[in-house]
Amino acid sequence: xxxxxxxxxxxxxxxxxxxxxxxxxxxxxxxxxxxxxxxxxxxxxxxxxxxxxxxxxxxxxxxxxxxxxxxxxxxxxxxxxxxxxxxxxxxxxxxxxxxxxxxxxxxxxxxxxxxxxxxxxxxxxxxxxxxxxxxxxxxxxxxxxxxxxxxxxxxxxxxxxxxx
Length: 164
Known about the structure:
It is a single chain. The chain has helices at residues 2-63, 72-109, 114-134, 152-163. It is mostly helical. The chain has one domain (2-147). Helix 1 packs antiparallel against helix 2 and helix 2 runs antiparallel to helix 3 (114-134). The radius of gyration is 23 Å and the shape is elongated. The two termini are 45 Å apart. Residues 159-164 have low confidence and may be disordered.
């Protein structure tokens, strides 16, 4: 009788954890959609700003032969850096939520959720790339300006380990 109660309690806790994971997944999806919208808006803003700068430069060059104090590349870097700072901040919140859900799995089942572990690993690599770009350690812009290559090395390592 007490085993049935324990099993029912475990089932209830697993169901609660599954609901929490679904809610976190929905929040992550919503955050990704918001990030996509922000990236599109920022790209449009950057393009508009570049066009305005080009027009201003053309009119200025026709009036005088002076070079602008700030180049298009610098202005673009400023906008993209601000955009990635915002994306990084949002991603850090998602990262924290997934960590809390992972603690829930650990407390309830005694094991980590491998999907959440893989997701947070990839998100951590993405955040590291954002930090490198924002801190001028690299000029390579992170995703979506390059392909999503995060997690590729861990998958190939795992497949090699299984085959041996």
